[in-house]
């Protein structure tokens, strides 16, 4: 309704009919007009505010809900769908505590209770994880206000918003700060800020480890005062470059430590003088004391390795299968005389040094092992040409190195010259064969020596061996399988004597003669034309003596050129000389018997000598038939061991020479053994025997074989014992004692001869009456 002032007002019109006509139509009405402009305006403003509020709530990032005491919504704003994904219908079916993360639930409940205790007061500042409709957890920041006292609201208002990104950012920032703090406080790096004069502006707290609890007192002081005096000039010179270079890597130096004295440190400096937040030079330092120590140890180890390579007996190589380059240690030259070239050329050098008979096999074995992924270590043997033109026997041990995919990247190996071991091993085999064949009843002495000499020649290249017998003080060739027959004819019948070459002189002097150069040695002066004609440059001769000390033969070794007499070859030939001497002594003894064929047949079957060959390592004795012939024991069907020897030894003789025997076995310089003891015969009686034996040892001096003889000396020893007893008995009769006492002493002497348990002396007259005049027992 229009106001008289021209504006419109809201009017509430109320009326009531007071009178009606006969048709019932009101004729008179009573009414009022009330100005309700303020009420209508207020209602319109209320509606507008409500519309704005709803628009604000529905489009806000915040959401709110009115909850009952159990946490179940009685009302939710539409914006909850943007926050948690639930629409209003779904949201009112939820429960706050059911969708809260288990780890946060207790705090949410505490927050809820706190709001109940403070009605009408907003309780803010709580953040918790609430489950989104998609199952993820969202961080919500909530303010809770208890309005249970308000009859219009009658609930608890929960105003909340999604702060997930903020929380995650804060967590990352906190983690970063913790990480940085640990790096600064606990990390290996020492961080400082210094000025251009190297004065400390800042020191990280972990400097306390180095400088002690009062490390901060160094602030404002120069860092140069904490650097070792020997390193300081170098560091100061390097530091000058920081003016022109932003980043500077400083070489290692020693830095003061309040406990250890000095520690090695390496630093990197960054010039941030112009940075307003820094305003200095940032120096990151790290302790490298252990690294320096390891490097020093590695250097020492490398130096030791170099020494080992130079001083060791093995020759080390490192082979690259990809390039066929091979590194050779200095020992290849020192030990084998192989000239070391470039790594490219070394491969061909080794290949060409392989013995022609071994080359293809050795290369094939190497390549086969190289292609076998399951074989990481392998060994092989072959011969390799050395500096003196001879071939060494090599044992090669290789180790394969692979990458992460199993491909061979390198082969590192060691070649060991086992010539000495190989030769002595073969010599052991040749000596054993010689002994075993010599024990055969139908042994052919000449053929046995011939085969043995050929074996020796196979061990010592270019050496030719000979056995010459001495008959009537003249040389008589017995076997020389590789010497020129014309040379043998020329020396046949030459006399022994001084300056009679090697063999004639050795036989005459009864000692070895080692002529190293026949063209300068006076003992070959008469025979130099012969030596020149038959290609002889050196000759070593060893005399062989029989048991009577007479020279019966010589074993000679000829070389085509001058030859120094030392080392391995001399050891081999001396051993060969000794073993041939033992075998020849056996054949010489049998030869004496053969002179009378009939007598030989008898003596050969009844000889009182037993020859043995003892394999020390296997503890096996070989007797042939001699032990049975001499002492009646037959061990042809069972092994004879050292324990059997001890069992056959008289109890009183056992252990008598144990210490002497132990010393003999342990001394590599001893090879001759002699002993006397009583040996039990098969009939239970004891024979007095003499043992003479020769011990064969390997290149290390360890005993490996013993060859010897047992001689039955019972008759000789019994005769000597009886003479001694007769003298003692006669001495008793010369004593001025009663006859009964004299006879008692005589009886004891007689009982001692045969180990009798008791004895008596009887006197009888012509009437055969007998009287015991002496008796004894328990001698």
How would you characterize this protein structure?
This protein has 7 domains: 1-54, no CATH class; 60-169, Beta-Lactamase (2-Layer Sandwich); 187-294, Beta-Lactamase (2-Layer Sandwich); 312-417, 2-Layer Sandwich (Beta-Lactamase), CATH 3.30.450; 423-587, 2-Layer Sandwich (Beta-Lactamase), CATH 3.30.450.40; 607-712, PAS domain (Beta-Lactamase, 2-Layer Sandwich); 719-777, no CATH class. The termini are far apart. The strands form 7 sheets. The protein has a 5-stranded antiparallel beta sheet, with helices on both faces. Strands 9-8-12-11-10 form a 5-stranded antiparallel beta sheet, with helices on both faces. A 5-stranded antiparallel beta sheet has the order 14-13-17-16-15, with helices on both faces. It has 23 helices and 29 strands. Helix content is 37%, strand content 30%. The chain is α+β, with helices and mostly antiparallel strands and 779 residues long. The protein is elongated, with a radius of gyration of 59 Å. Helix 17 (567-594) packs across helix 18 and helix 22 (714-733) runs antiparallel to helix 23 (739-754).
